[in-house]
# Entry
Amino acid sequence: MTRQCCLVVLLGTLLLLPVLYQNRCETSVPPLTVLPTVASPVAAVDPIMELDNGRWTRSFRAADGTLYLWGRLQSRDGGRTIEPQTAIDVEKINAAPERAVFTRPGMFYALDGPAELESPGVYRVRGWRSTDDLLTLSSETVRLEVPAGPRRARQPHEWYGLYVYRTILEMPDGSWRLTMYGNFDVDTLPPLDRSSQQETKYMMRAFILISRDQGSSWQYLATIAAPQLGDPVGEGFVEPALTRLSDGRLLCILRTGHYYPLYASWSSDGGISWTAPVYTGLDRGCDPCLITLVDGRVALSWGRRFPETWSTIDSQGDAARFKYPGVGVVNLAISSDGGATWVNTKVAQRGGSCYSTIFEMVPNIIFLQVEQRFWRVTIQPQDARAPEMQ
# Structure
């Protein structure tokens, strides 16, 4: 090739470089998408009562709308006022958030938290039942069949075994679903971080049971989520909260540790199969409580015992510094797309255990309970432009 030809080729290449660079930028770097700012759906948070004589408690709403609160308290006006009640003793049911409660006219049913080993694959748990709308309440022993469950009993003060948690749902065919978490016999993965190692020896899984006899017995149906080596979780998948969406799917929100985010999983076949758990965008969460609102949105209360600006990495760790009621934050998140995305609002601080329970009293009014602190939370009505449930 002559010198003149080389100069022509070189000159042509130099002239093309800006075009080639521009094309490369256009194809390899997509334009930045600016997301719109979403206003908080929480319009007002009105405290009702704040006591300091009950910790790690729950509450339930009876079929007639009465709220039963730990400490022999109740509200009969949608949570506006709290008053003593002596008609029925439900203290053991509300004594810990692990209990699961189901209510409808003519049926009250509740289960205790820890399940005890009876024989390999068979467990028993304490239950309560009323068929006269809580005029009377009887106790019973309930059988749980979990063939792959742990084959040894838990030791004193050991977080091990199987635990009932939070939710009993009635399905359209009349069968019931129950959320649980704990250790199957094959679950031997140790937690990787110091905080989770202080909580449990083995990472846990979340799973679901089915009852076809109105809670007299329960059978294992499916695992919602089980930890695998390398998963970005601390305690595994625990404290599952369950709701049925307006499109019929089941949504489960899962705790993974005090320093790890909440995850979500969905089922389109009544709990037989579940999607792989995905990050919710809600960070460092404990004890989710989940309900579907009458307008189809989903409300989620959850806690952060060790929030931002407070947590430190040192030899003691946050848990050693925790002094009740601490600095923990109680949150209320609302989803308009079936749990795919959430808009979160911090509604209270110094939240103690940060274990909360919520009920929708009337449209757009949520009663929120943490320990013996109670609030009525007003949320904005559903925006007509919000995305439809998918």
User: Anything to note?
Assistant: The longest strand covers residues 42-50. Residues 5-11, 13-21, 384-390 have pLDDT under 50 and may be disordered. The radius of gyration is 25 Å. Residues 59-296 form a domain with the Neuraminidase fold (CATH 2.120.10.10).
